[in-house]
Amino acid sequence: MIYVVATLTVKPETRAELIAAAKLSIAATRKEPGNISYDMHESVTDPTKIVFVEQWENAEALVPHRTADHMKAFGRVAVNCMTAPPKIEIITPAKVDVR
Q1: Distances (CA, A) of 49 to 15, 59, 95
Q2: Other Cβ atoms within 10 Å of 87 Cβ, number
């Protein structure tokens, strides 16, 4: 299992536009093979930060996701709403014994 954490910094005046486009992309992504969860979060300390937290069965499931039509459509909107490139981290659960 892998997680993707994508942090976007958006222009305040385009925030509503980005969120509207994200809703369509989220709905489509949740139907993709290998997707476990896909959620959008808003920072409580910085209104320009939008964070997507995704959970996937494996890295292979991300390959078609990146080129899906709904992601291309979201990308066309997002590129005009962001003030910087997104910060994308791919993480896995830590193998830590917490007994």
Answers
A1: 9, 25, 29
A2: 12
CATH class of 2-91: alpha beta
Radius of gyration of the chain (CA): 14
pLDDT in tens, the chain (99 residues): 999 999 999 999 999 999 999 999 999 999 999 999 999 999 999 999 999 999 999 999 999 999 999 999 999 999 999 999 999 999 998 888 777
Distance set, CA 81 to CA 9, 19, 28, 34, 36 (Å): 8, 10, 21, 28, 27
Residue type, 24: L
Domain ranges of the chain: 2-91
| Nearest CA among 2, 24, 18, 36 for reference residue 69 | 24
